[in-house]
Automatic annotation (TrEMBL):
<dbReference type="InterPro" id="IPR002181">
    <property type="entry name" value="Fibrinogen_a/b/g_C_dom"/>
</dbReference>
<keyword id="KW-0812">Transmembrane</keyword>
<feature type="domain" description="Fibrinogen C-terminal">
    <location>
        <begin position="1"/>
        <end position="86"/>
    </location>
</feature>
<dbReference type="GO" id="GO:0016020">
    <property type="term" value="C:membrane"/>
</dbReference>
<keyword id="KW-0147">Chitin-binding</keyword>
<dbReference type="GO" id="GO:0046872">
    <property type="term" value="F:metal ion binding"/>
</dbReference>
<keyword id="KW-0735">Signal-anchor</keyword>
<dbReference type="InterPro" id="IPR050373">
    <property type="entry name" value="Fibrinogen_C-term_domain"/>
</dbReference>
<dbReference type="InterPro" id="IPR014716">
    <property type="entry name" value="Fibrinogen_a/b/g_C_1"/>
</dbReference>
<protein>
    <recommendedName>
        <fullName>Fibrinogen C-terminal domain-containing protein</fullName>
    </recommendedName>
</protein>
<dbReference type="GO" id="GO:0008061">
    <property type="term" value="F:chitin binding"/>
</dbReference>
<keyword id="KW-0479">Metal-binding</keyword>
<keyword id="KW-0106">Calcium</keyword>
<dbReference type="Pfam" id="PF00147">
    <property type="entry name" value="Fibrinogen_C"/>
</dbReference>
<comment type="subunit">
    <text>Homotetramer; disulfide-linked.</text>
</comment>
<dbReference type="InterPro" id="IPR036056">
    <property type="entry name" value="Fibrinogen-like_C"/>
</dbReference>
<keyword id="KW-0325">Glycoprotein</keyword>
Amino acid sequence: METYLPSGMKHIHALTIQANYELRIDLEDFENSTAYAQYGTFGVGLFSVDPDDDGYPLTIGDYSGTAAVVLPLECHVMAHQGYRFD
């Protein structure tokens, strides 16, 4: 796992610094109820001088959607802003 994670994060970092990306997560429960969460900003290590040393921090922002009504706060991606993948 130690060799896989940094390699994968390097690829995600390389993709997300090339342009502005959004993240959309669609949810469906066992009763076919649906919700979504959309984030207007998404990237990994966007503002890092050395993302490998910084742990590829997660950048997300500008939430919109219907998932806020069905998910507890700790499940929201915004609660993980700045999360380091190291």
